[in-house]
Design brief:
31 strands, 9-stranded mixed beta sheet, ion transport, phosphoprotein, calcium, alpha+beta
Length: 1207
């Protein structure tokens, strides 16, 4: 399909490419080349990049005109910069998927059998021979209505399926909306009409001139026009981890989906969307998925190499085909990271890799690989804490339900058989067989219904609804959630490692102090106070030695502040130039970016930026700016008030640090040094690659103090975090004095605290041993008291985060959230349990590595994320408390009723209605409770806290016992209380009774009022607190009550109900309401006194998973606890069979004297599970290890080893 679309594009370009001087096909073939080959092709076909610009009717300086007609024409000829997502699943497909549920299929089959048999009626004369249970039907109309129960069950199944499908559909719609929002917010800087503008990534067209800078994720393919120290990470496409230097002379080819790691520049866009290199791979993945059934095509297509080597790529393709994943360059880049795609797509790779895929002998090298693989598996990311606990709990409840339903069916069948054929002593009549089968089907339906009620299929639904609802609401709180489980993990957070700039501070920087011309100015000096010679050097350095994308824009409204665009530190310096009444833009116009001779862009290692200008006489001048204490060490001269330079000795530097830099830093100012260096003609042109020799012997011009005020809401937000048991740490690249001052203003440090503030260098010294290796024990001595890490590199940040997460020094394992904005923050963001990227200041790379994007870059938004995360956890616990009460009561009532009265007091259709209330409606009602500030008054739950606390267990058992007493009282003496006929021991097809209708009605009303009780899980007394803040909850409770009235009064035969009188309704309602009063009584009992209560719903600890199961999970990206629980039985079963078979072979081999190896080999083809991978089975007392890798009969005996050890 993808190929067809390509041919369509190619055909359409045939008519148009003449207008542009080069076709889509030419550009695509050009972008497949690299390095010297690409430069040769550009020179041969177009002369140079300028020539290609001319052919594409664009200007390397002014870009496209931006005329709508021109843009539309380019989209038509060269395509749009988007890859259309796969179509979402239709509602009918979702219905079909919902129908695959095993319990529903069983119910459908049973209902159809029941429906068919209900139409059979034996002659009246024969009926009396079929036992007392079959008789008793006086009304022919009632007997003819026997089909209604089967039909009602089918109808209920349809309802359940439709509700499930609708939930899936709305969930998918929400996620697609979220994805499109993320994509819409992605913008990129292009030059159009000579102006730099930000446009959505999808609007970029071939011929655009895009400005690229540090941290960008390239949205299209292009050719470099001009670059400054540009380095690209192409590992997502080539697998090479080294950064590739891009220059016009060596390699100007830039590819979509790659990351700019250093530098800046301009590129000419040459391929977009499906025609870019990433787009081509993406389309191949999609095409391969479509051709999956056609083996020949799959074998001949290049993407089969992708599939053979990467387990994650087919998953990506499947997700794409299913419409679960929408296109995102970053997403593809991330997923293709470990694979060298260019080599995968070359035919030569197939032969080599094909050979490698053959099974090899289990030698020592392979054992090493096996060990590494095991260690990698143990590092696999587990599914979120909550998912792990829930899936394990759901599987355990499901198993218990299965046992109960099986026992119910067996008891019903046994009682019926004993009563009919033994007590009544009746023979088996052939004419009675359909009636007996009807009974058995009825019993089977009751058993399946018990299972349906027992299996908590509402749990995943509750999680989904709660998370989706939270994600939607979190958007309003400036949290754009990229990974759903991050929302819930945030509720468990115990530590937050936060950046300073922009997160804790406003990221609106201004120069407020300056040391210039031997004088420290406490305020920005007047222009006339600075000598002209110094002023010219200072303003020229500020203007050219900054990214040209950084600008101070005019005020948007009267009285407002000028708008800062780009790097905020550079904006502060440009603002300083404006304050000195100089126009930096005029200097930039005189010296455009193309005239800059060499640029050393800022990065976390340099902590500085330098720009070289070539003078008319052939000499060079380099301007530098950077962190003051770092750059001052590289200065050997100082510019004096007279405009002359004087020697700047180490002693002078120490004086300046004490008298200028430390006082500025103690006021929370960021200090920046501005310097320059001249390279005279006489010395010749220096070697610009020898950076250490270049960046030395500088002349200091000025030191400025830049203020970045603390956000007014941050101190209060940090106080809330500390009260909620969350430790906030500041990790910054700033000077330690500046960091300490800001941390004190924020409240991270309190006067008199014994907490640590240290620099990255000191941190590294303390955590490493003599060999320079990091030791966890050393980190454990530091991190509990560490509050500020200054002058830290991204590596330090990653080390700290990893150290805290891996630490076992505290009883509770830490859950760490991290904020980051830079490209190099990626590893720390990925390592953290929850990574927050800055939406405004953050680079594309940081956003791709994050779980949540803060759209306002504000720390107080993180506190809101904590609130929502805790709310999700509580919502699930509320739902669990409610559902387990219903589960326990419904299963025991059905089971006991069936055993004693040979019929369940709650009929199949009634149980399905209860299931609907309990699963879908309750999950919607309880999972949409809004969060309150009180959530921040308790400590985090942590990873090991059970889902069901002892307080919840007290509520579940307390309400369960109370409800059972009421239901059983009504069941056995209800007819006497209400003076009505008994409904017990009713024969087949008997009409519904008032007795059982009252039981059903009371049961439902008990659940309805208990739903209000379930709103509180920490023993609070006021269950109505804030109930009207949740309209969904009120609507569902009220709506369920109305539907219950309709079912009871007018449900009739399908619901096994008869209309009740007002008195009966009032009694049922009173009994339901009494559960609220009972709840008050339960909450009065202190949980501590009930020592016999146990908590439940602990997550699986990683150490609980045996190594062999980790091996079985090799293909999984995450450890799925439910899958693990369910597969464990299968694994043990196959392993047991395998061992028995192996041991039988060993015995028979010794008996017959034949070779065990030969026998083992003969068995190989039929044992598919062993053909897939080398198997090492270790059991006691017998242990057998074998490796099946023979490629032909001749090598078989040498490659198959057998070791048998007997006691």
């Amino acid at each position: 399909m993808a190929n067809n679309s390509y041919s369509g594009v190619k055909n359409s370009t045939a008519n148009h490419h003449g207008d542009f001087g080069c076709s889509l096909k030419d550009l695509r073939s050009l972008m497949e080349l690299r390095g010297a080959e690409a430069i040769g092709k550009i020179g041969e076909s177009y002369g140079d990049v300028q020539g290609l610009c001319t052919r594409l009717k664009t200007s390397p300086v002014d870009g496209l005109s931006g005329q709508p007609a021109d843009i539309d024409k380019r989209k038509e000829v060269f395509g749009q910069n988007l890859i259309p997502p796969k179509k979402p699943k239709t509602f009918l497909q979702l219905v079909w998927e919902a129908l695959q549920d095993v319990t529903l299929i069983i119910l459908e089959v049973a209902a159809i059998v029941s429906l068919g048999l209900s139409f059979y009626r034996p002659p009246d004369a024969e009926r009396e021979h079929c036992g007392s249970a079959a008789g008793g039907v006086e009304d022919d109309g009632e007997a003819e209505a026997g089909w209604i129960e089967g039909a009602a069950i089918l109808l209920s199944v349809v309802c359940v399926v439709l509700v499930t499908a609708f939930n899936d559909w709305s969930k998918e719609k929400q996620f697609r909306g979220l994805q499109s929002r993320i994509e819409q917010e992605q913008k990129f800087a292009v030059v159009r009409g000579g102006q730099v503008i930000q446009i959505p990534v999808a609007e970029i067209v071939v011929g655009d001139v895009a400005q690229i800078k540090y941290g960008d994720l390239l949205p299209s393919d292009g050719i470099l026009i001009q670059g400054n120290d540009l380095k690209i990470d192409e590992s997502s496409l080539t697998g090479e981890s080294d950064h590739v230097k891009k220059t016009l002379e060596r390699d100007p080819m830039l590819l979509s989906g790659t990351h700019v790691m250093e530098g800046s520049g301009k590129m000419l866009v040459t391929a977009v969307g499906e025609n870019s290199q990433t787009g081509i791979i993406f389309a191949l993945l999609g095409a391969s998925e479509e051709d999956d059934d056609d083996e020949e095509e799959k074998e001949s297509g290049p993407v089969c190499y992708l599939f053979s080597l990467s387990p994650s790529l087919p998953c990506l393709a499947k997700n794409l085909a299913a419409g679960a994943v929408e296109f995102s360059y970053g997403d593809l880049a991330r997923r293709l990271q470990p694979f060298n795609v260019s080599s995968l797509l070359s035919p030569s790779a197939k032969a080599a890799d094909g050979a490698a895929m053959e099974m090899q002998p289990l030698n020592s090298d392979e054992v090493d690989i096996d060990e590494k693989r095991k260690s990698n598996l143990k590092e696999k990311k587990e599914k979120s804490v909550l998912q792990g606990k829930l899936t394990k709990l759901a599987v355990q409840i499901g198993k218990a339900g299965l046992v109960m339903s099986a026992i119910t069916v067996i008891i019903l069948v046994v009682l019926f058989v004993v009563d009919t054929f033994w007590v009544q002593g009746l023979p088996w009549h052939k004419d009675c067989t359909p009636i007996y089968i009807q009974f058995f089907v009825k019993f089977f339906i009751i058993g399946v219904t018990v299972l349906v009620v027992a299996v908590p299929e509402g749990l995943p639904l509750a999680v989904t609804i709660s998370l989706a609802y939270s994600v939607k609401k979190m958007m309003k709180d400036n949290n754009l959630v990229r990974h759903l489980d991050a929302c819930e993990t945030m509720g468990n957070a115990t530590a937050i490692c936060s950046d300073k700039t922009g997160t804790l501070t406003m990221n609106r920087m201004t120069v407020v102090q300056a040391y210039v011309a031997d004088k420290h100015y406490r305020n920005v000096p007047e222009p006339q106070l600075i000598p002209a010679a110094i002023m010219d050097i200072l303003v020229l350095g500020i203007s050219v030695n900054s990214a040209y994308t950084t600008n101070i824009m005019v005020r948007e409204k009267e009285g407002g502040l000028p708008r800062q665009v780009g790097n905020k530190t550079e904006c502060a310096l440009l603002g300083f130039a404006n304050d000195l009444k100089r126009d930096y833009q005029a200097i930039r116009n005189e010296i455009p970016e193309e005239k800059l001779y060499k640029v050393y862009t800022f990065n976390s290692c340099r902590k500085s930026m330098s720009t070289v200008l070539k003078n008319a006489d052939g000499s060079f001048r380099m301007f530098s700016k950077g962190a003051s204490e770092i750059l001052l060490k590289k200065c050997s001269k100082l510019l004096t008030a007279s405009g002359e330079t004087k020697v700047f000795r180490p002693r002078d530097r120490e004086d300046m640090v004490k008298k200028v830099i430390e006082p500025m830093a103690s006021e929370g100012l960021r200090t920046i040094c501005l310097a320059y260096r001249d390279f005279p003609v006489s010395e010749g042109e220096p070697d610009w690659d020898q950076e250490n020799d270049i960046l030395t012997s500088l002349t200091c011009v000025c030191v400025v103090g830049i203020e970045d005020p603390v956000r007014p809401e941050v101190p209060d937000a940090i106080k809330k975090c500390q009260r909620a048991g969350i430790t906030v740490r500041m990790v910054t690249g700033d000077n330690i004095n500046t960091a300490r001052a800001i941390a004190t203003k924020c409240g991270i440090l309190q006067p008199g605290d014994e907490f640590l503030c240290m620099e990255g260098k000191e941190f590294n010294r303390r955590i490493r041993n003599e060999k320079g290796e990091i030791e966890q024990e050393r980190i454990d001595k530091i991190w509990p008291k560490l509050r500020v890490l200054a002058r830290s590199s991204p590596t330090d940040k990653h080390t700290l985060v990893k150290g805290i997460i891996d630490s076992t020094v505290l009883e509770q394992r830490q859950v760490v959230a991290v904020t980051g904005d830079g490209t190099n923050d990626g590893p720390a963001l990925k390592k953290a349990d929850v990574g927050f990227a800055m939406g405004i200041a953050g680079t594309d790379v940081a956003k791709e590595a994050s779980d949540i994007i803060l759209t306002d870059d504000n720390f107080s938004s993180i506190v809101k994320a904590v609130m929502w995360g805790r709310n999700v956890y509580d919502s699930i616990s509320k739902f669990l408390q409610f559902q387990l009460t219903v589960n326990v009561v419904a299963v025991i009532v059905a089971f006991t009723g069936a055993c004693i009265t040979q019929d369940s007091p709650l009929k199949a259709v009634q149980m399905l209605w209860v299931n609907l209330i309990m699963d879908t409606f309750a999950s919607l009602a309880l999972a949409t409770e809004p969060p309150t500030e009180s959530l921040l008054l308790r400590k985090p739950y942590g990873r090991n806290k059970p889902l069901i606390s002892r307080t919840m267990m007290k509520n579940i058992l307390g309400h369960g016992v109370y409800q059972l007493i009421i239901i059983f009282t009504l069941l056995f003496v209800g007819e006497q209380i209400f003076d009505i006929d008994s409904g017990r021991y009713a024969p087949l097809h008997s009409p519904p009774s008032e007795h059982y209708t009252i039981i059903f009605n009371t049961f439902v009303l008990l659940q309805l009022f208990n739903e209000i009780n379930a709103r509180k899980i920490h023993g609070e007394r006021n269950v109505f607190d804030g109930i009207f803040n949740n309209l969904i909850f009120c609507s569902i409770v009220f709506g369920t009550f109305i539907i219950q009235i309709v079912i009871v009064q007018w449900g009739g035969k399908p619901f096994s109900c008869v209309g009740l009188s007002i008195d009966q309704w009032l009694w049922c309602t009173f009994l339901g309401f009494s559960s609220l009063l009972w709840g008050q009584l339960i909450s009065s009992i202190p949980t501590k006194s009930l020592r016999f209560l146990k908590s439940a719903g602990h997550g699986t600890q990683r150490q609980e998973i045996p190594d062999e199961e980790l091996e079985d999970m090799e293909e999984m990206e995450e450890i799925d606890h439910a899958e693990r629980e369910l597969r464990r039985g299968q694994i043990l079963w196959f392993r047991g069979l395998n061992r028995i078979q192996t041991q039988m072979d060993v015995v028979s081999a010794f008996q017959s004297g034949s070779s065990f190896q030969e026998r083992q080999l003969r068995r190989q083809p039929s044992t598919s599970s062993q053909q897939q991978h080398d198997v090492t089975n270790v059991s006691s007392p017998t242990h057998v290890a074998f490796s099946t890798t023979a490629t032909d009969a001749n090598t078989a005996s040498s490659t198959v080893g057998c070791e048998c050890v007997f006691p």
